[in-house]
Amino acid sequence: MSKPKSKAKAATRSTRKTVKPASRKRSAPAASRSASGPHTKHARIIAMLRTPAGATIAAIMTATDWQQHSVRGFLAGVVRKKLGLNLVSEQTEKGRVYRIRDGKASTVPTDRAKQAA
Q1: CA-CA distances (angstroms) from residue 86 to 1, 20, 46?
Q2: Confidence of residue 94 (pLDDT cuts 50, 70, 90)
Q3: Is the pLDDT confidence value at 31 over 60?
């Protein structure tokens, strides 16, 4: 058999309301801020790549304090795949220069098929 619950315990509980501390004002929620604002590293790299002169990996490394493999990963993963931009590179006397060309990005499988032939 079970004992009936007493109402005494419920009466001893505190009914005091807790006061919330005043919240601080925020400039803007994180979601409403532009992800690629003019001061982000991503925006700086995209701006460098959009110039007619383009940018070398060394220049991007200097601008972002990233390592070489991080710059290469950003170019392949973010610029080409995620953003779908037409990133082209060419060998010059300064080294390999990367730039974003206007127009639709070339499809990778057709380029790879041409290289294999």
Answers
A1: 77, 52, 12
A2: confident
A3: no
Q: Count Cα atoms within 13 angstroms, Cβ side, for 55.
A: 21
Question: Which run of H or of E encompasses 96?
Answer: strand 95-101
Q: Is 17 helix (H, G, I), strand (E, B) or coil?
A: coil
How many C-beta atoms lie closer than 10 Å to residue 101's C-beta?
14
Dist. CA 68–CA 16, nearest whole Å: 60
Cα gap 36→78, rounded to integer Å: 12
| pTM, two decimal places | 0.57
Q: Is 4 helix (H, G, I), strand (E, B) or coil?
A: coil
**Token representation of residue 44:** 């700086």
DSSP category for residue 101 = E
